[in-house]
Design a protein that fits this description.
single chain; globular; two-stranded antiparallel sheet; mainly beta
Length: 520
Amino acid sequence: MQLKYYSRAISVIIVSILLSHNIYSQSKFKLPSGLGFANQLEYSYDVDKKLEIFENWLNLDFRKSIFSAGIRLDVFQPNDPNPSISRGKDRYADISFKYLGVKLGNAREGLNVTVGNFYELFGRGMVLKSYEDRNIRIDNNLLGVKVEGSYAKFKLTALTGMAENMSAERNDILHAADLEYRGIKAMKMGASFASNQPKGDEARTHLAAVRIEPSIWNFDFYGEYGIKQNEDIKENIFKGDESLAGKALYGSMNFYLTSFSFSGEYKFYDNYSFTSSDGTIAYNTPPALRSDYSYMLLNRHPSALNPNNEKGFQVEASYSLSENTNFTANYAETKTLSSSSLYQRIRKIQTNSNSFLPIQTQLKQFFGQAQHKWMESLTTIAAFGYSEELSGNTKSITPILENRIYLDDINSFKIVLEHQLTKNRTTSEQYYDSVLLLEYLRSPKLSIALVTEMQTKEPTEGRTVRKVYSFVQVGYKFGQHTDVSILVGSRQAGNICIGGVCRYEPEFSGVELKMQTRLF
């Protein structure tokens, strides 16, 4: 049976590579004017679990004159069994995204109408963030109508749509509008509103926010304040004593001066999540103030965004000592809210509790990096990470050393060593993880990486347990159209986090293929 699945895996890889080569060899072939084609294929077979996953997204888009249209065919045979990913689509093939658009006028004075599936972002996502990110398997597209109108210095976006829940059903209706004004030099202003219409008898939730974006000299600022209203919370929880069900504040500042730059962010999210009535769709995703790292071990202990119960800040500074040497430092801290918050008061009433939860540090992060170019052929990066996170109650220290060796303009090597000490503050257990990455890059066509990780644990005193994971990953670019990546080996369990939204990937041992093709 295992040989059968290996044969299928090898067959999928061979057919995919031959298809890529065929597209590359026919590089003179051009699609009709206005037609775009994009395909993303992911296939994996886990040897230990005997689990086979095949996923494919095929996009076709067409633009002609004032009209545009597109479809996306999703094929899962089978899908990832994780219910947050599969949404009940074990074996599935259907057109899951389709739209028709009409564009009248121009960017200054014009009207765009979209009917079908669409995405939309208001400001920084405080009120509405409808988007797709396949790395974390987020797709909360809306099915309905969107209208965008521009006149003079104003831009208005209004929409009505329904998002798909975990059961692949579209039940609740979302109404939203955003007005932006750019009539003042170095200043943008905007206001957003959104309201859901649940399928059942639940009260509607309304979100409203105002934002301002001034730029002064070398400073860029952004500020947004939002409120949340819900009649059920107002009447049943607060008995009419509170007009708000939630509130949020986000602000950021960026400063640039020659070789120095500084950025700072602040957040206050009090019972500000905006979800469907069943809680499986998030309509808004405020800025998380969490760093997403390129190094493996720094992402091993994530802290997911909680728009209901967070207050914190993040600061980052960069300085270039010379054209060969630069430094970067980042610090972030997130805490839960005090007893005076709306969230704490609502929780206390709903749970019939006699006390409030204490303020806790949900996340504390520090990352520092120094980069120095010794010569044209050698660059060294030394980095250090420190983090504390509440969800797993761990504390970790991570030193990193990276060397980049350039043989010429095309060929280069990268050597990365990561070492992490983690302490579980609940059990007092300490364990180590070490990662060695060796990568050869022949730009822009070929990359070959060997990654080995060793985890050392001592579950009981005097008993040491070590696990070793290793994989080889090869990437190749066929022409200008297709990127293929093949991974063979074993990989430690971990998390993929983007913008405070995380997806857990279990331990894996087998073969994995990813292929992306784009033709325009």
